[in-house]
Protein backbone atom coordinates (compact mmCIF):
# COMPACT_ATOMS: atom_id res chain seq x y z
CA UNK A 1 0.00 0.00 0.00
CA UNK A 2 1.32 3.44 -0.89
CA UNK A 3 2.19 5.68 2.03
CA UNK A 4 -0.35 8.30 0.90
CA UNK A 5 -3.15 5.74 0.72
CA UNK A 6 -2.32 4.49 4.21
CA UNK A 7 -2.45 8.03 5.62
CA UNK A 8 -5.73 8.82 3.88
CA UNK A 9 -7.28 5.61 5.23
CA UNK A 10 -6.28 6.79 8.70
CA UNK A 11 -7.82 10.24 8.25
CA UNK A 12 -11.12 8.82 6.99
CA UNK A 13 -11.25 6.30 9.83
CA UNK A 14 -10.69 9.09 12.34
CA UNK A 15 -13.38 11.29 10.75
CA UNK A 16 -15.85 8.41 11.07
CA UNK A 17 -14.81 7.62 14.64
CA UNK A 18 -15.30 11.28 15.61
CA UNK A 19 -18.69 11.44 13.81
CA UNK A 20 -17.47 14.18 11.50
CA UNK A 21 -18.43 11.73 8.77
CA UNK A 22 -20.77 8.76 9.06
CA UNK A 23 -19.35 6.94 6.09
CA UNK A 24 -17.39 7.27 2.85
CA UNK A 25 -16.79 5.58 -0.49
CA UNK A 26 -13.46 6.35 -2.12
CA UNK A 27 -11.00 5.07 -4.69
CA UNK A 28 -7.36 5.43 -5.66
CA UNK A 29 -6.38 5.12 -9.31
CA UNK A 30 -2.94 4.59 -10.84
CA UNK A 31 -1.32 3.00 -13.84
CA UNK A 32 -1.55 -0.31 -11.97
CA UNK A 33 -5.35 -0.17 -11.70
CA UNK A 34 -7.77 1.07 -9.07
CA UNK A 35 -8.69 0.25 -5.48
CA UNK A 36 -12.17 0.95 -4.11
CA UNK A 37 -13.10 1.26 -0.42
CA UNK A 38 -16.37 1.52 1.52
CA UNK A 39 -16.51 2.51 5.18
CA UNK A 40 -19.05 3.39 7.84
CA UNK A 41 -22.81 3.80 7.62
CA UNK A 42 -25.18 6.06 5.71
CA UNK A 43 -26.15 8.48 8.44
CA UNK A 44 -26.73 9.67 11.97
CA UNK A 45 -30.11 8.19 12.84
CA UNK A 46 -32.35 5.24 11.97
CA UNK A 47 -32.80 3.88 9.40
CA UNK A 48 -29.55 5.32 7.99
CA UNK A 49 -27.44 4.36 11.00
CA UNK A 50 -28.30 0.69 10.41
CA UNK A 51 -27.19 0.71 6.77
CA UNK A 52 -23.55 -0.03 6.02
CA UNK A 53 -21.95 1.74 3.07
CA UNK A 54 -21.83 -0.81 0.24
CA UNK A 55 -20.78 -0.88 -3.42
CA UNK A 56 -23.49 0.48 -5.69
CA UNK A 57 -24.91 3.08 -3.30
CA UNK A 58 -25.93 6.41 -4.84
CA UNK A 59 -24.49 9.76 -3.80
CA UNK A 60 -25.78 13.21 -4.71
CA UNK A 61 -22.79 14.52 -6.69
CA UNK A 62 -23.81 18.18 -6.22
CA UNK A 63 -21.34 20.40 -8.15
CA UNK A 64 -19.27 17.44 -9.27
CA UNK A 65 -22.06 17.32 -11.88
CA UNK A 66 -20.41 20.37 -13.46
CA UNK A 67 -17.46 18.33 -14.72
CA UNK A 68 -18.92 14.83 -14.95
CA UNK A 69 -21.70 16.08 -17.22
CA UNK A 70 -21.72 19.69 -18.33
CA UNK A 71 -18.03 20.50 -18.86
CA UNK A 72 -17.38 17.21 -20.61
CA UNK A 73 -20.33 17.58 -22.97
CA UNK A 74 -19.61 21.25 -23.79
CA UNK A 75 -16.00 20.39 -24.68
CA UNK A 76 -17.27 17.56 -26.90
CA UNK A 77 -19.53 20.05 -28.69
CA UNK A 78 -16.55 22.37 -29.14
CA UNK A 79 -14.47 19.51 -30.53
CA UNK A 80 -17.27 18.61 -32.95
CA UNK A 81 -17.49 22.21 -34.20
CA UNK A 82 -21.04 22.68 -32.93
CA UNK A 83 -20.02 25.67 -30.79
CA UNK A 84 -16.82 27.60 -30.11
CA UNK A 85 -15.30 28.69 -26.81
CA UNK A 86 -15.48 32.23 -28.23
CA UNK A 87 -19.19 31.96 -29.10
CA UNK A 88 -21.29 34.56 -27.25
CA UNK A 89 -23.79 32.69 -25.08
CA UNK A 90 -26.61 34.93 -26.33
CA UNK A 91 -26.21 33.50 -29.84
CA UNK A 92 -27.57 30.21 -28.52
CA UNK A 93 -29.68 31.50 -25.61
CA UNK A 94 -31.20 34.77 -26.91
CA UNK A 95 -32.85 35.56 -23.55
CA UNK A 96 -29.39 35.97 -22.03
CA UNK A 97 -28.61 39.65 -22.40
CA UNK A 98 -24.79 39.87 -22.20
CA UNK A 99 -23.23 39.65 -25.71
CA UNK A 100 -19.71 39.96 -24.26
CA UNK A 101 -19.97 36.72 -22.23
CA UNK A 102 -18.75 33.65 -24.10
CA UNK A 103 -19.03 29.90 -23.63
CA UNK A 104 -15.39 29.91 -22.54
CA UNK A 105 -16.08 32.56 -19.90
CA UNK A 106 -18.77 30.38 -18.33
CA UNK A 107 -16.48 27.32 -18.29
CA UNK A 108 -13.68 29.33 -16.66
CA UNK A 109 -15.96 31.05 -14.13
CA UNK A 110 -14.65 34.43 -15.29
CA UNK A 111 -17.88 35.68 -16.90
CA UNK A 112 -18.36 38.35 -14.24
CA UNK A 113 -21.83 36.99 -13.40
CA UNK A 114 -22.89 37.01 -9.77
CA UNK A 115 -22.18 33.72 -8.05
CA UNK A 116 -25.81 33.22 -7.06
CA UNK A 117 -29.25 34.29 -8.22
CA UNK A 118 -30.69 37.43 -6.67
CA UNK A 119 -33.15 37.13 -3.78
CA UNK A 120 -32.62 33.40 -3.29
CA UNK A 121 -35.13 33.32 -0.45
CA UNK A 122 -37.95 34.20 -2.84
CA UNK A 123 -37.02 31.88 -5.70
CA UNK A 124 -39.86 29.72 -7.01
CA UNK A 125 -40.25 27.34 -9.90
CA UNK A 126 -42.25 30.12 -11.60
CA UNK A 127 -39.57 32.82 -11.42
CA UNK A 128 -36.24 30.96 -11.43
CA UNK A 129 -35.66 31.10 -15.20
CA UNK A 130 -36.45 34.82 -15.35
CA UNK A 131 -34.03 35.46 -12.47
CA UNK A 132 -31.41 33.32 -14.19
CA UNK A 133 -31.43 35.27 -17.44
CA UNK A 134 -31.40 38.58 -15.56
CA UNK A 135 -28.48 37.74 -13.25
CA UNK A 136 -26.38 40.92 -12.81
CA UNK A 137 -22.65 41.09 -13.49
CA UNK A 138 -20.19 42.29 -10.86
CA UNK A 139 -17.16 42.81 -13.15
CA UNK A 140 -16.32 42.72 -16.87
CA UNK A 141 -15.97 39.29 -18.44
CA UNK A 142 -12.46 37.86 -18.37
CA UNK A 143 -11.15 40.12 -15.60
CA UNK A 144 -11.44 37.86 -12.56
CA UNK A 145 -12.57 34.52 -11.16
CA UNK A 146 -15.92 34.15 -9.40
CA UNK A 147 -17.28 30.62 -9.04
CA UNK A 148 -20.80 30.71 -10.44
CA UNK A 149 -23.56 28.13 -10.30
CA UNK A 150 -25.49 30.51 -12.54
CA UNK A 151 -22.99 30.14 -15.35
CA UNK A 152 -23.23 26.36 -15.32
CA UNK A 153 -27.02 26.36 -15.25
CA UNK A 154 -26.76 28.46 -18.42
CA UNK A 155 -24.29 25.98 -19.92
CA UNK A 156 -26.76 23.19 -19.19
CA UNK A 157 -29.48 25.08 -21.05
CA UNK A 158 -27.01 25.64 -23.90
CA UNK A 159 -26.30 21.90 -24.16
CA UNK A 160 -30.01 21.14 -24.07
CA UNK A 161 -30.62 23.66 -26.87
CA UNK A 162 -27.82 22.32 -29.09
CA UNK A 163 -28.57 18.63 -28.52
CA UNK A 164 -32.35 19.03 -28.58
CA UNK A 165 -32.86 16.67 -25.63
CA UNK A 166 -32.77 16.82 -21.84
CA UNK A 167 -29.34 16.68 -20.22
CA UNK A 168 -30.10 13.16 -18.97
CA UNK A 169 -30.29 11.85 -22.54
CA UNK A 170 -27.43 13.99 -23.83
CA UNK A 171 -25.01 12.92 -21.10
CA UNK A 172 -26.07 9.27 -21.28
CA UNK A 173 -25.56 9.15 -25.05
CA UNK A 174 -22.26 11.01 -25.26
CA UNK A 175 -20.56 10.37 -21.90
CA UNK A 176 -22.06 7.71 -19.66
CA UNK A 177 -22.78 4.97 -22.21
CA UNK A 178 -19.40 5.24 -23.98
CA UNK A 179 -17.69 5.02 -20.56
CA UNK A 180 -19.93 2.09 -19.44
CA UNK A 181 -21.30 4.24 -16.59
CA UNK A 182 -24.66 2.57 -16.00
CA UNK A 183 -25.41 4.08 -12.58
CA UNK A 184 -25.14 7.84 -13.22
CA UNK A 185 -28.32 9.82 -13.79
CA UNK A 186 -30.53 12.71 -12.76
CA UNK A 187 -33.29 10.22 -12.06
CA UNK A 188 -32.34 6.87 -10.55
CA UNK A 189 -35.06 4.26 -10.93
CA UNK A 190 -35.27 0.60 -10.09
CA UNK A 191 -33.38 0.56 -6.79
CA UNK A 192 -34.84 0.36 -3.29
CA UNK A 193 -34.65 3.51 -1.20
CA UNK A 194 -31.93 2.12 1.07
CA UNK A 195 -29.44 2.47 -1.81
CA UNK A 196 -29.63 6.27 -1.66
CA UNK A 197 -27.26 8.08 0.70
CA UNK A 198 -29.10 10.86 2.64
CA UNK A 199 -27.95 14.48 2.59
CA UNK A 200 -29.06 17.42 4.72
CA UNK A 201 -31.98 17.37 7.16
CA UNK A 202 -33.96 20.61 6.86
CA UNK A 203 -37.15 22.03 8.31
CA UNK A 204 -38.65 22.50 4.85
CA UNK A 205 -37.77 19.16 3.23
CA UNK A 206 -36.94 16.80 6.11
CA UNK A 207 -33.95 14.50 5.61
CA UNK A 208 -33.32 14.80 1.89
CA UNK A 209 -32.97 11.33 0.47
CA UNK A 210 -33.13 10.20 -3.14
CA UNK A 211 -33.78 13.68 -4.54
CA UNK A 212 -31.43 16.53 -5.34
CA UNK A 213 -30.23 18.63 -2.40
CA UNK A 214 -29.28 21.77 -4.36
CA UNK A 215 -32.12 24.28 -4.11
CA UNK A 216 -31.84 25.71 -7.63
CA UNK A 217 -31.60 22.28 -9.23
CA UNK A 218 -34.63 21.22 -7.17
CA UNK A 219 -36.72 24.16 -8.43
CA UNK A 220 -35.60 23.63 -12.02
CA UNK A 221 -36.54 19.94 -11.80
CA UNK A 222 -40.10 21.01 -10.96
CA UNK A 223 -40.10 22.69 -14.39
CA UNK A 224 -38.77 19.47 -15.99
CA UNK A 225 -35.37 21.14 -16.50
CA UNK A 226 -32.18 19.39 -15.44
CA UNK A 227 -29.49 21.67 -14.07
CA UNK A 228 -26.01 21.89 -15.56
CA UNK A 229 -24.73 22.93 -12.15
CA UNK A 230 -25.89 20.08 -9.89
CA UNK A 231 -28.32 17.18 -9.76
CA UNK A 232 -26.54 14.05 -10.93
CA UNK A 233 -26.50 10.95 -8.72
CA UNK A 234 -23.83 8.30 -9.07
CA UNK A 235 -21.87 5.50 -7.45
CA UNK A 236 -18.19 5.16 -6.62
CA UNK A 237 -17.88 2.53 -9.34
CA UNK A 238 -19.12 4.92 -12.04
CA UNK A 239 -17.07 7.86 -10.77
CA UNK A 240 -13.98 5.68 -10.87
CA UNK A 241 -14.76 4.76 -14.48
CA UNK A 242 -15.15 8.45 -15.32
CA UNK A 243 -11.87 9.33 -13.61
CA UNK A 244 -10.15 6.51 -15.48
CA UNK A 245 -11.41 7.93 -18.77
CA UNK A 246 -9.75 11.28 -18.12
CA UNK A 247 -6.53 9.81 -16.74
CA UNK A 248 -6.18 7.50 -19.75
CA UNK A 249 -7.13 10.37 -22.10
CA UNK A 250 -9.79 8.08 -23.50
CA UNK A 251 -10.91 8.83 -27.07
CA UNK A 252 -14.39 7.79 -25.96
CA UNK A 253 -14.57 11.22 -24.28
CA UNK A 254 -12.37 13.50 -26.42
CA UNK A 255 -9.56 13.61 -28.92
CA UNK A 256 -6.07 14.44 -27.72
CA UNK A 257 -6.34 18.15 -28.49
CA UNK A 258 -9.05 18.67 -25.85
CA UNK A 259 -6.92 17.02 -23.16
CA UNK A 260 -3.97 19.18 -24.24
CA UNK A 261 -6.13 22.30 -24.04
CA UNK A 262 -7.36 21.37 -20.56
CA UNK A 263 -3.79 21.08 -19.32
CA UNK A 264 -2.31 24.11 -21.09
CA UNK A 265 -5.12 26.54 -20.28
CA UNK A 266 -4.80 28.38 -16.98
CA UNK A 267 -6.99 31.34 -16.05
CA UNK A 268 -7.05 32.50 -12.44
CA UNK A 269 -5.90 29.04 -11.34
CA UNK A 270 -8.44 27.14 -13.42
CA UNK A 271 -8.94 25.47 -16.76
CA UNK A 272 -12.22 24.78 -18.56
CA UNK A 273 -14.61 23.52 -15.89
CA UNK A 274 -11.90 22.30 -13.52
CA UNK A 275 -9.67 23.80 -10.82
CA UNK A 276 -5.88 23.45 -10.97
CA UNK A 277 -5.60 24.02 -7.25
CA UNK A 278 -3.12 21.18 -6.79
CA UNK A 279 -0.81 21.87 -9.73
CA UNK A 280 -0.61 22.60 -13.44
CA UNK A 281 -1.07 18.93 -14.39
CA UNK A 282 -4.07 18.40 -12.10
CA UNK A 283 -7.82 18.57 -12.58
CA UNK A 284 -9.88 19.00 -9.41
CA UNK A 285 -13.51 19.57 -8.48
CA UNK A 286 -15.71 19.28 -5.43
CA UNK A 287 -19.41 19.04 -4.64
CA UNK A 288 -21.14 20.76 -1.71
CA UNK A 289 -22.59 17.43 -0.54
CA UNK A 290 -19.08 16.13 0.22
CA UNK A 291 -17.88 14.76 -3.11
CA UNK A 292 -14.57 15.39 -4.86
CA UNK A 293 -12.32 14.18 -7.66
CA UNK A 294 -8.58 14.88 -7.94
CA UNK A 295 -6.75 13.77 -11.10
CA UNK A 296 -3.03 14.10 -11.75
CA UNK A 297 -2.87 13.87 -15.52
CA UNK A 298 0.94 13.73 -15.53
CA UNK A 299 1.35 10.73 -13.23
CA UNK A 300 -1.94 9.03 -14.12
CA UNK A 301 -3.08 8.94 -10.49
CA UNK A 302 -6.52 9.83 -9.17
CA UNK A 303 -8.40 10.12 -5.87
CA UNK A 304 -12.22 9.98 -5.87
CA UNK A 305 -13.99 10.73 -2.58
CA UNK A 306 -17.77 10.43 -2.08
CA UNK A 307 -19.32 11.39 1.26
CA UNK A 308 -22.48 13.00 2.59
CA UNK A 309 -20.62 15.51 4.77
CA UNK A 310 -23.73 17.76 5.00
CA UNK A 311 -25.69 15.04 6.84
CA UNK A 312 -27.41 15.78 9.06
CA UNK A 313 -26.18 19.41 8.88
CA UNK A 314 -23.95 21.46 6.59
CA UNK A 315 -22.20 22.96 9.64
CA UNK A 316 -19.16 20.73 9.19
CA UNK A 317 -15.98 22.78 8.58
CA UNK A 318 -13.69 20.08 9.99
CA UNK A 319 -14.36 17.82 7.03
CA UNK A 320 -13.38 20.55 4.57
CA UNK A 321 -10.02 21.02 6.29
CA UNK A 322 -9.49 17.25 6.46
CA UNK A 323 -10.18 16.92 2.73
CA UNK A 324 -7.55 19.54 1.95
CA UNK A 325 -5.08 17.55 4.03
CA UNK A 326 -5.99 14.31 2.23
CA UNK A 327 -5.51 15.97 -1.15
CA UNK A 328 -2.16 17.41 -0.07
CA UNK A 329 -1.00 13.99 1.09
CA UNK A 330 -2.21 12.38 -2.13
CA UNK A 331 -0.18 14.83 -4.23
CA UNK A 332 3.07 14.34 -2.30
CA UNK A 333 5.73 12.54 -4.36
CA UNK A 334 6.29 8.97 -3.28
CA UNK A 335 9.69 8.41 -1.66
TrEMBL record:
Ranges for domain Beta-lactamase-related: 52-317
Upper lineage: Bacteria, Bacillati, Bacillota, Clostridia, Lachnospirales
Pfam families referenced in this protein's UniProt entry, alphabetically: Beta-lactamase
Xref: InterPro entries: Beta-lactam-related (IPR001466), Beta-lactam/transpept-like (IPR012338), Diverse_Enzym_Activities (IPR050789)
Entry annotated with the keyword Cytoplasm: no
Domain of life: Bacteria
The UniProt record lists the keyword Hydrolase: yes
MF annotations from Gene Ontology: hydrolase activity
Record's keyword terms, sorted: Hydrolase
Species, as recorded: Hungatella hathewayi WAL-18680
Protein name: Beta-lactamase
PANTHER family xrefs: BETA-LACTAMASE-RELATED, BETA-LACTAMASE-RELATED DOMAIN-CONTAINING PROTEIN
Amino acid sequence: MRRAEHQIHGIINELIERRILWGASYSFLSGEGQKLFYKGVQGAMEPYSDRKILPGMYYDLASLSKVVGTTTRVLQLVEDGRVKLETPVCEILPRFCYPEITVGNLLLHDSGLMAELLHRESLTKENILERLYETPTVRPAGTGFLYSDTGFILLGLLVQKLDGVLLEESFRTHIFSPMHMTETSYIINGKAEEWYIPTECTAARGCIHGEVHDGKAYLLSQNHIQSGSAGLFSTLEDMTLFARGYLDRSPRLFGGEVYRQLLTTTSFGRTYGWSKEYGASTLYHTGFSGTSMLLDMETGRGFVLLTNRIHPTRDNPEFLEARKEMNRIFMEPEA
